[in-house]
Write a structure and sequence with these properties.
Strand content: 15-25%
Strand order of the largest sheet: 8-4-1-2-3-14
Largest sheet: 6 strands, mixed
Number of helices: 12
Distance between the termini: 83 Å
Helix content: 25-40%
Length: about 625
């Protein structure tokens, strides 16, 4: 762990993320994706928290304090982040990283939309959110997750959790991890990520609606949860830093000079003791802001006493709570207003308050806030909800690991992901569906090719057998060739020719169908197709001269009936293009249209019906 105030040691150059492989080179699998280790990352104004979860067990967790110029957004952050993430490499060489986005501009809403699916549901959620709050897609990132059917609704409707975040905040967080050489798989928010903790078997039970208050250094989060789903959330600009400022104000007030006592007598009467305020007192030098933060941790959480402070700055626990009481009072009032607003709007009050955050390691702070709220209360220790390896969780970090653990439980397609929103997920799902269709089509084609190849091989084997028998017969007959042998050979040749003609007849229909499908333009549908094999040609207009007799060869005749749909002005041009395509085909001969008429085709509208004859070369 790098000490506070020290810069991160130099590390190897960041690992450049590998480019995605083309779709056709990726390994396709129809089985579920194997579970792997997930690293949750959470950053507050003072510390960076890591939690590694694999197979439902906490493998590793730690917290790193930021040094000078190492906080998020400063120039030293990428090197600091790289150093922190390298501590996980020996625990799990390959991890999927999820980070928690903290921003005052986050907007989480539970919306009710019609029960739809696919692109229709995407559109319904998008326009409902636009109605609730206008936003520009160029400036905001939107993602949503379906919570379930809406209760007490007469029509089929769905409750969806929608998240809006500024695109610049999402890009800054994504780029910071890329620069550190550890690209993110997902970016989520704290209220939505805590849903994963509330859905665990070891999560708190026995309530209808719970209010989770998570307090950090510069802000706090209030989330209302029912049945493992987030119903409402709010960010409050008040946290332990406000308590540190209240403690600083307390010492500043002590350092102010007190007014001298005035009266008629300059000296007290004999035998009267001097008042306590008349005694000279040592002036206490107030701490600065950083010292006040450290002093608060020392007094309430047992941290080290900051340098530059002495025994005169030490307060009892009761004195410390009295000093920070204004900050606790402000936080309590904001929580009260939030709970009252939800109770008024939704006609439902919460049953219990769960308190999360490092400051609540001190039971007295929790009791002070709970006493102001007046609700049943419990500590929200997320590390007790999961199994953990020995020494994977430090005792002093337990109450502060909820955001990182919640992020490590994030799963693709099951929660808010501002890095890979519903649009990207829908596009990838379409690509996967297309890949499956292509794969199935390829498998079908291979089966057909295999069957055809097997049939051809059987015929070839039969012909090879016949040829071998003929050769053996010829050898047995010797060199004498008589008329009977020639006749037998001619008969065998005729039989083979007849079998070849039959084979050609069997393959004529598939070849004709394939050529017609390739030549048919868009909008033309073939209604019926008749193939007459071995039809003699029509008699010529004049018989051939007797000195030049011409052999009459039978040919195949194709009768095609179809309908052309589309714009009425384009019906005949479409048919003409089809005839031109047939004339250019090396398979067909003399296509002639014998009949055309307009016909009604129901929902498809009016079409041009035609009957066409042509020969097969």
């Amino acid at each position: 762990m790098p000490p506070a105030g020290a810069s991160a040691p130099p590390m190897s150059p960041p690992i450049a993320p590998q480019a995605k492989k083309p779709l056709w080179t990726r390994q396709l699998s129809f089985s579920p994706v194997k579970k792997s280790a997930v690293l949750g990352v959470s950053m507050t104004s003072g510390r960076l928290s890591l939690a590694l979860v694999s197979g439902g067990t906490i493998q590793f967790s730690t917290r790193f304090p930021f040094g000078p110029d190492q906080a998020f957004g400063q120039k030293g952050f990428p090197a600091f982040l790289r150093t922190c993430l390298e501590s996980v490499r020996d625990k799990a060489p390959q991890v999927r990283i999820w980070a928690v986005l903290r921003s005052q501009d986050l907007d989480l809403n539970v919306l009710t939309v019609p029960k739809l699916s696919g692109a229709k549901l995407d559109a319904a959620v998008y326009w409902t959110q636009q109605k609730e709050k206008k936003f520009a897609e160029a400036e905001y990132v939107m993602d949503y997750v379906v919570l379930g059917p809406t209760k007490d609704s007469k029509e089929p409707r769905l409750d969806v959790l929608v998240c809006l975040a500024r695109r610049v905040d999402v890009d800054r967080l994504r780029d910071a991890f890329r620069e550190a050489g550890w690209p993110l798989e997902g970016i989520t928010t704290l209220p939505s990520a805590l849903q994963a903790l509330y859905r665990l078997p070891g999560a708190p039970k026995g309530f209808t609606l719970a209010a989770n208050i998570h307090v950090e250094e510069d802000a706090s989060t209030i989330g209302l949860y029912a049945g493992g789903d987030l119903r409402f959330s709010r960010f409050i600009r008040s946290g332990t830093d406000s308590m540190s400022e209240a403690l600083l104000t307390h010492f500043q007030n002590l350092a102010k000079p007190r007014a001298a006592m005035t009266g008629d007598l300059e000296l007290p009467p004999p035998g009267v003791p001097k008042a306590a305020g008349d005694e000279p007192q040592d002036v206490i030098t107030p701490p600065d802001h950083l010292q006040a933060k450290g002093l608060l941790r020392h007094l309430l959480l047992g941290g080290p006493l900051p340098k530059g402070l002495g025994q005169e700055h030490l307060l009892s626990q009761i004195q410390t709570l009295e000093a920070i009481a204004p900050a606790i009072d402000r936080l309590g009032k904001q929580v009260e207003r939030t709970l009252e607003y939800y109770a008024t709007a939704q006609q439902q009050r919460c049953d219990v308050v769960h308190m999360s955050g490092r400051i609540f390691r001190n039971p007295a702070v929790m009791e002070a806030l709970a006493g102001q709220l007046g609700y049943p209360h419990h500590t929200f220790d997320s590390t007790t909800m999961l199994a953990s390896r020995p020494d994977s969780v430090a005792d002093m970090d337990r109450m502060a690991l909820a955001p990182a653990l919640a992020a490590s439980l994030s799963a693709p397609d099951k929660g808010i992901n501002l890095l890979r929103t519903y649009k990207q997920r829908q596009a990838e799902q379409s690509q996967q569906t297309l890949a499956r269709i292509l794969l199935l089509a390829l498998a079908g084609a291979l089966v057909v090719i295999g069957a055809v190849g097997y049939g051809i091989e059987r015929h070839a084997a039969e012909h090879r057998t016949e040829l071998q028998a003929a050769r053996q017969q010829l050898q047995s007959m010797g060199a004498v060739i008589d008329e009977q042998t020639l006749t037998r050979s001619v008969e065998q040749y005729a039989v083979r020719q007849a079998s070849l003609r039959k084979a050609a007849e069997r393959f004529t229909a598939p070849v004709v169908l394939a050529e017609l499908s390739r030549r048919a333009p868009a909008g033309l549908k073939i209604v019926s197709l008749t193939i007459d094999l071995g039809v003699p040609p029509a008699a010529p207009a004049a018989p051939p001269p007797p000195d030049k007799p011409k052999a009459v060869q039978p040919s195949d005749l194709v009768t095609l009936e179809g309908v052309v749909f589309g714009d009425k002005a384009e019906l005949e041009p479409t048919l003409s293009r089809f005839i031109i395509e047939l004339q250019a085909s090396p398979l067909f001969n003399m296509p002639v249209v014998h009949q055309t008429n307009l016909t009604e085709a129901g929902a498809e509208g009016q079409g041009l019906h035609f009957v066409l004859h042509m020969g097969v070369k």
